[in-house]
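Hi team, as promised in this morning's meeting, here are the two structures we talked about. I've kept the exact order from the run log so nobody has to guess. The first one is mostly here for context; it's the second one we should focus on when we meet again. Sequence first, then the predicted structure tokens.
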Amino acid sequence: MDFKHIILTAFNVGLYDRKKVGRRTIKAWFDHRVVVFKKYTLASIMNQTNKNFIWEILFDTDTPKEHQDIIEELYKIDNVSIRFTSKKKSREEKVNERGIAMRKLVGTSSNIITTRIDNDDAFNINAIEYIQDQFKKCDPSIDNSVNFLTGLIVVDKPKEKRIFKIGLSSNAFVSLMEPIKESTIKTVKHVKHTLIRCRSKIANIHRDKNMWIHFVHGHNVENSIAGREIYEVKESFGFDMGEFQK
């Protein structure tokens, strides 16, 4: 199957339209998020067993100079593509802009796989390999999606380090494969992740493995914790989990 696999991450789009994020200043939020991103998200993606992907990371067009060190670092990574956009644009403008960007990345490929991950979460190092293996079994003429049912919620606070195992039939760690047509490329972000099962044929895979981590660190917009507490993680996520295991 001829395809391109694009991982999508929005880093700070819309951040500068507000004065604070919760109780934190924009600078405090951004500085903390860069630390979390480098330690967990970047490590998990760069250590994937299958590196046949392009990682598109979106930054706000209003990103100030003092916040651009991370962008300069990312430009040096071969399979990372930086794109600037603005939340102020209309939905139609953003859809068209995304479609143009995707077409440039996919070239002459007949299919595109898009996978979403937030800038403070992580994937099992086998995630990309498993996603592509599953899509090779699918009908490439229709939209197909893949969901990792089982993952971890990890509490990463200065005085609290805990791990919870959870199964979610609808979660944010989802991928979409679609045939490339003359119309706009949709990508996995064309609808909320809770609705993607209604728009494509979905497969929940590797139920027996912890395939993702959602971090709760106090700087999240949402900090809900659920699942069963565990004390050991066998899977690899590309970074040391020792501080969370008892």
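And here is the second protein, the one for discussion:
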Amino acid sequence: MSVPVYAARGPVPFLLRYVRHRLGGHAVVLTAILAAVGCAIGSQYAVKNLVDVLGWQFPPASSLWTAVGVLLALVAGDNLLWRLAGWVAARVFVELSGDLRLDLFEHLSGHAPSYFADRFPGALAGRISTAATAALTIENSLAWTTIPPAAAVVSSIAVLGLVNWHLTAALAAISVVLGLSVRHLAGRGRHLHDRYATRAAGVSGDLMDIVSNIGLVRAFGAAGRERASAPARSRRRDAALRARLSSRSASSTHACRPRRRRESRPLHLAEALSYRALTDEIRRAA
């Protein structure tokens, strides 16, 4: 099935098509991340267990060393699994973006020569690279900034369910409400991300076209005109970037983020949930 047919179905089926091509590697990454989160949650309770054993008046040596061994195993598993996930992802995610870039190039090269007559080749190449980079960014955002916190929250609530189900139900409801609120705030800035992606791709394409035809630009004395028009294009792109960052700051303020280092999370979540820009770039390349 051709690229436009998959792209017409939506961004999620389109990306899943390439994920299925690398299903084994993605399964290893996802399993390692979830297992690492489980080890991190379990290590906290292993520390509590060790403290309880040390609180005994005469703790048996077997119980003491068992508690120490469980804690060390969980800590070692946490670190090893994160490194395994990163090692596999460094290969699989890059290969997925390469597959996407090759398919888009193959589809683009199948067009008639008249298709390229009124289109800039640099802009077309920039859109292909932008689409592949967007897919890589989405996978990295999901793997490192979206799935781990979500899995940690679910695992913590599940463990608390063994202690008090009333508390578990309340925490689950609060988590769902906060998640939906963050998703709503992230979705409100989707048009800003789309506008920035469009203008950034345009600036990149114009620059590539000028550089690839620098001989003609110099021959006709157009270097000054191109240099004079470049700041206007850059200002439009920078204005879109400022609007995008302002939306992120507003979302962070409304979500009441207490720590500074987490203010960028709504932006990552917006990028993970906003696939529209990726679809637009794919359709322009097609």
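Starting points for discussion:
Residues 61-109 form the longest helix (49 residues).
The chain has one domain: 3-285.
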